[in-house]
Design goal:
Helices cover 34% and strands 19% of the residues. Helix 1 (4-12) packs across helix 4 (95-108), helix 2 crosses helix 4 and helix 2 runs parallel beside helix 7. The chain contains ten helices and 14 strands. It has a single domain (4-296), classed as 4-Layer Sandwich (Purple Acid Phosphatase, chain A, domain 2).
Length: 298
C-alpha cells in the first residue's frame, strides 16, 4: 500500500523522484496498473454540470518544467477531469520524473486524472528515443523494465467526453465503427481483441490529419499508419455523432493547430522538445460547455 504522505511529497517536489530506489517505484507502477486495468479502452467521462472544465494535456516528452506549470494551472482551473494524451517519456531530461509524477497524480485521485496511451508508451519506441536506455542507466537491470511494459499494456486509448468530444493521441482509424466496438472493453481484456481492432488501436495512436488530402494515404511513420483528410474526418465525426476531436502527436511552431474547419485541435505540451535552444510554446486545451479552447502555457 502506498502512503498518502509519500505521494504528496513527490507531487510537491518531483525532483525527489530521481533519488528513489526501484522498490519505491515498483509500488507506484503496481498500484497504477491495478487502477488502469479496471478502466476501459475507451473511457467515457460525463460532466454533470455544463460549466465543469476538462483539461487536456498533450505530449510532455520528459519536460518536467512544463508539467509543473500545468499542475499550477490545474489548481487554478479547478478542472473536474484532467486527461493526459500520452507520450510522457522519451527525448527530455526528466522522463522518469514526468512518468512517476503523472502516475502519482492518478493514484492520489483516480477519478480526476486519466492517462491515455500514445505511440511512445511502447517498448519499441522507447528503445529508439531514449527512455529505455535512461531506465537501464538508472536501474541496471532490463527485467525491471517489465513493470513499465505492464503499465503500457494497461492504458486506455481514448476518452469520450459527454459523448461528443473525443480525445486521443494520434488520429481517427480507417474503421469508423472502431470506437463503438471498443466501448465497454476493459484494458485487461486487450489480449482478446482481433487483428482488425488491433490495427484500429495502432492508428488511434499514430495517425495524423493532413489538409488538402482526400481519404487515407500512406504515412512516413510506418506500416498501417495513415494520413487522413477532411472528407473522411467529417464522415467519421458524423457517423460517431461527435462535435470535436482533441489530439496531440505533432509539434507546431505556434504551439497548437486547428484542422478541418476548427473541429480537430492538435496540442503539444512540451516546450523543449527540440532542446532549450529551439523552444516552442507549450499548449493544452480546456473543454467547457460544448466548446474546446486551446491555451498556451505562459
Amino acid at each position: 500500500m502506498i502512503e498518502q504522505s509519500f505521494l504528496d511529497r513527490i507531487i510537491e517536489n518531483p525532483y525527489l523522484i530521481a533519488k528513489l530506489k526501484f522498490k519505491k517505484l515498483l509500488l507506484v507502477f503496481r498500484e497504477a496498473v491495478k487502477l488502469f486495468r479496471e478502466e476501459t479502452l475507451i473511457l467515457e467521462l460525463k460532466k454533470e454540470h455544463p460549466q465543469d472544465k476538462v483539461m487536456v494535456i498533450g505530449d510532455l516528452h520528459g519536460d518536467l518544467k512544463s508539467l509543473m506549470k500545468l499542475m499550477e494551472i490545474i489548481k487554478k482551473e479547478n478542472s473536474k477531469y484532467v486527461i493526459f494524451l500520452g507520450d510522457i517519456v522519451d527525448r527530455g531530461s526528466y522522463q522518469l520524473e514526468c512518468l512517476i509524477l503523472v502516475l502519482a497524480l492518478k493514484i492520489k485521485d483516480s477519478n480526476k486524472y486519466f492517462f491515455l496511451k500514445g505511440n511512445h508508451e511502447t517498448l519499441e519506441v522507447n528503445r529508439n528515443y531514449g527512455f529505455y536506455q535512461d531506465f537501464l542507466n538508472r536501474f541496471k537491470d532490463p527485467k525491471k523494465f517489465n513493470q513499465v511494459k505492464a503499465l503500457y499494456n494497461a492504458l486506455p486509448y481514448s476518452a469520450l467526453v459527454n459523448e461528443s468530444i473525443l480525445c486521443l493521441h494520434g488520429g481517427i482509424p480507417e474503421e469508423f465503427n472502431a470506437i463503438n466496438r471498443l466501448r465497454g472493453i476493459k484494458t485487461s481484456e486487450i489480449n482478446l481483441i482481433d487483428e482488425n481492432t488491433a490495427k484500429s488501436l495502432l492508428q488511434i495512436m499514430w495517425n495524423d490529419p493532413k489538409p488538402n488530402l482526400e481519404g487515407f494515404t500512406e504515412s512516413f511513420r510506418g506500416r498501417e499508419v495513415k494520413f487522413f483528410g477532411e472528407d473522411v474526418f467529417s464522415d467519421f465525426m458524423r457517423e460517431n455523432k461527435l462535435d470535436y476531436l482533441v489530439r496531440a502527436h505533432e509539434r507546431f511552431p505556434e504551439g497548437y493547430k486547428w484542422f478541418f474547419n476548427k473541429r480537430l485541435l492538435s496540442i503539444f505540451s512540451s516546450a523543449n522538445y527540440r532542446g532549450t535552444l529551439a523552444p516552442i510554446p507549450a499548449s493544452y486545451a480546456i473543454i467547457r460547455n460544448k466548446t474546446v479552447i486551446p491555451k498556451i502555457i505562459s
